[in-house]
Design goal:
Blueprint lengths: L1 H28 L8 H9 L2 H33 L4 H57 L1
Length: 143
């Protein structure tokens, strides 16, 4: 069970980092001046941000699922053994909680990265609007 939960969280981390790096490289090489419509600009700039946000918001739930399953297994094993040993219960619960911690370790950086990328989108959009305003001023002066 741990391997499955940690595997899913690891895959989510990989995807989040992959798309974050892809977005950063895309923003670095994007020339917003060639895009003529604001909605087209937003589509290009926000591509793959939904995935990063989804990972940030859902990783804790994956970790929580692992914790709940770990607690269920702990109680099942205790019920099958017939003897209740507090140290076994505490050990099982402690091990189960590591899945929640792992989910939070994936979610927190994902949300931070998402917010940073969203800020970059806002900056690029503002630059595009400023460029469009300058273009309109120049065309008005020529007339």
């Amino acid at each position: 069970l741990d391997y499955m939960i940690f595997g899913i969280l690891g895959f989510m981390s990989f995807l989040m980092l992959w798309f974050a790096i892809e977005r950063l490289l895309y923003y670095r090489r994007t020339d917003t001046r060639v895009i003529t419509h604001e909605e087209e600009l937003k589509i290009h700039l926000t591509q793959n941000l939904t995935l990063i946000s989804s990972i940030g918001s859902n990783a804790p739930y994956i970790g929580l699922l692992g914790t709940v399953m770990g607690i269920l297994i702990t109680f099942y094993d205790l019920g099958m053994g017939g003897q209740i040993d507090p140290s076994q219960i505490m050990m099982g619960l402690a091990l189960a909680l590591k899945a929640t911690a792992a989910g939070l370790l994936v979610a927190i950086p994902a949300i931070l990265i998402y917010n940073g990328l969203l800020r970059k989108v806002e900056v690029l959009t503002a630059r595009w609007k400023a460029h469009q305003d300058k273009r309109e001023e120049l065309s008005d002066e020529k007339v």
